[in-house]
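From the methods appendix. Each design record in this collection lists the discretized structure first, followed by the designed amino acid sequence. Records were kept in a plain field format so they could be parsed without special tools. The example shown here is representative of the layout used throughout.

RECORD:
C-ALPHA CELLS (94 positions):
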C-alpha cells in the first residue's frame, strides 16, 4: 500500500468508523466470492472478477490499518507462502 493510499484509508476509518469499514470489508469479500462462483458456473466475467479483486485488496489494506497488525500479517503470509511451496514440491515428487 502506498503512503497516499494509507492516508486515504486512515481518513476513511476516521470519517466512517472502524465498525462500518469492517462491514464494508465483509461485503466486498462476499462480492469477490460471488464473482468467482459465477466463473465456476461458466460465466467468464474477467472484468467483474478484476474489479472485485481490487475492492478486496483495498478493504484488506484497510483491515490491516484498523487492526494495526501489518507486521504479524507479513509474518503469517511468509509462513504460509513457504508452506505452499513445500506442498507444491511434495506434489511434484509424486
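DESIGN:
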Amino acid at each position: 500500500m502506498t503512503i497516499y493510499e494509507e492516508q486515504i484509508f486512515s481518513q476513511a476509518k476516521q470519517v466512517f468508523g472502524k465498525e462500518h469499514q469492517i462491514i464494508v470489508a465483509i461485503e466486498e469479500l462476499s462480492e469477490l466470492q460471488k464473482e468467482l462462483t459465477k466463473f465456476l458456473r461458466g460465466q467468464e466475467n474477467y472484468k467483474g472478477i478484476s474489479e472485485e479483486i481490487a475492492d478486496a485488496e483495498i478493504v484488506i489494506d484497510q483491515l490491516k490499518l484498523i487492526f494495526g497488525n501489518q507486521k504479524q500479517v507479513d509474518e503469517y503470509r511468509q509462513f504460509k507462502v513457504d508452506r505452499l511451496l513445500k506442498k507444491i514440491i511434495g506434489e511434484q515428487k509424486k
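APPENDIX NOTE: The mean pLDDT is 94.
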